[in-house]
Amino acid sequence: MQGGLGGSSPRTAALPGFDLLGASAARRAWARRLAWTAGAALAIAIGLQLAGGFPERWVVDLARVFNAFQDWVVTHQRTHPLFRYGLVPLKDLVNTSFDQIVLLLSRMTWFGAIASAALVAGVAAGWRKGVLAAVGLGLMAVLGLWPESLETLALMVMAVVAALAVGIPLGVWAGRRPVVDRILRPILDGMQTIPAFSYLVPLVLLFSIGTTTALIATIVFALPPAIRLTALGMKLVPRGSLEVGEAFGSTPRQLLRKVQLPLAKPHIMLGVNQTIMMALGMVVIAASVGFRGLGRVVYNALQRRDVGEALAGGIAIVILAIVLDRVTMGWSQRDRRHRDADRIHLGRWSMSRRTGWGLAFAGAALAVVFGREVLRQQDFPEVWTVSISEPVNHVVAWLTLHVSDVTGAMSDSMIRYGLDPLRDLLQGVPWWMVAGGAALVAWRVSRRPDLTALAFCCVAGVGVLGMWEISMDTLSQVAVAVASSVVLAIPIGIWSAWDDRVQRLLRPILDAMQTMPQFVYLVPVVALFNVGRVPGVIAALVYALPPGIRLTDTGIRQVPRETVEAAAAFGSTRWQILTKVQLPLARPSILLGINQTVMMVLAVVIIAGLVGGGGLGYEVIRGLSHDPGRGMVAGICILLLAIVIDRITQMMGHVRREPSGSGASA
């Protein structure tokens, strides 16, 4: 590259010592990298000659403590006041409420429910979203999954209402009180770090399996975005607007109702959207603790290796996710898109939104009456349903016969050259080398003793809990999936940043990928690669692609145009501009994408225990039904690994700048 980018053009040749300084800095950077690589290789070589694993004598049998606690729960759940007056009535209330909501939705009849959803969506988000809601729910019914869809919707309604009833007030409080915000921030960080599966284990100890466990886990999992985005909206209210309100003598309550909440509404509605999508992801996973619904359809089908039935359930989940996402996003953006948002426009006709709501509820009531008194069909007619299970299974059988050689070779290569060597390496070196390596990386990216100590203690804690080899198996799967996802995401993100047509093409695909719950990604991969570690790794790397692509694209597009033009003016090639200007300046955004990729991969690798992925995910699944104590310990190990990975990858985007031009080595 030329000019100010470290090349050797005539312009820079006229600047004494310019190229020498650039070349010297580059040589120092490469020397440091080679030294780190050589040191790591030497340490691994030495470690492989020593006794590997974690000493058994240091293991603490925490599973026995949790199992003893569960035995105490079983023994005292009918006599202890905590259960008689607290947990048992709560469980009964949840079960009764859930049954009543399902009964209400069923008695609306399929026609009344679909018409009501379409009318409400149309008034809230526009007529196109109303049509989308009607078509989406209709397709779910045509797939023969109407009862399961109602059960999923019933738990979604309960969980989202409860999460918003808690999350929005807490977010308002945090937005108005910095002390509350500082207290809540680390708690919310921890909640968003924990993979979804880990929420289920402690609740099973208290409530056993069933609807109550699924509901509480969903509420807790869906809370953080409601709190965070509400608090953010409150903080972003202009100070001038508050001062005007105070100048007119408004009380704090009036300022909240008339100024802060209306101005914070876009962020609050975005929080509602994110809460709904996270709740749907958790409701689907809750099938592993006995909850019925669409997730159970997929779960049971995967257990039987019935790919056709699993795909039908997965399609229904995707349809529901798209409908909920588009309707809530349209609702949240309505006020910003239209100046007269208080009116509804249908071609040349318009009416006030209040009138629209009245007509929508009247239309919904008429649709219910029509379904009950005219059609007299509560459930969707079976003759109108279409089963895709058999044709899909025929296609899978054909693929297995004709493509199995290719997928088998891919699977064998990934296991032989990626998963097995890395797992054997992590399990073969002494525990203190792995923990020390994590601590060294933490120190390298942060220069913070507290993060260094945290990384060492968390990794060592996995060994103390007796899950060393299993955790290293999970860590090897995460590493392979992350590396594969990053290798794909960054070049695609660069391509998207360079070409607007590619970005327009990718946008709807990435939107759909980010809408789908994690669980759904396992279905098509199992059809091609059978069960085992490989399907989990492939599903994880695909699921984690969108943030890597989008944040790489965003980072490169946000590089100042003047900087790129200056580099081009000095004669830099496109490749030189990318490697010397755009990628270094986009580094924080790209590293944020890698952070999100790692956390999303970890979540899917854990869920892959459902399809034979092994590792900590399998231990959690087994613990949910057979050994709760061991499942609880596995959940704690997942949390420890998640904390280390999350904190290190977050700090990678905030590397301390080196003096005198050596920042290139960071």
CATH topology of the largest domain: MetI-like fold
How many separate domains make up the residues?
2
One letter per element, helices H and strands E, the order comes to HHHHHHHHHHHHHHEEHHHHHHHHHHHHHH
Main sheet: which strands, in order across?
A: 1-2
CATH class of the largest domain: Mainly Alpha
Query: Helical amount among residues, as a percent range?
Result: over 70%
What is the rounded distance between the termini?
A: 20 Å
Major sheet attributes = 2 strands, antiparallel
**What is Rg?**
28 Å
Q: For the record, what is the CATH homologous superfamily label of the largest domain? A: MetI-like
Explain what the structure shows.
It is a single chain. The protein is mostly helical. It has helices at residues 10-13, 18-48, 62-76, 81-107, 109-125, 127-142, 146-176, 178-193, 200-207, 211-235, 239-247, 252-285, 294-304, 307-337, 353-375, 389-428, 431-446, 449-464, 468-498, 500-515, 522-529, 533-543, 545-557, 561-569, 574-585, 587-607, 615-625, 628-652; strands at residues 343-346, 349-352. α7 runs parallel beside α10 (211-235), α7 (146-176) crosses α13 and α17 packs antiparallel against α18 (449-464). The radius of gyration is 28 Å and the shape is globular.
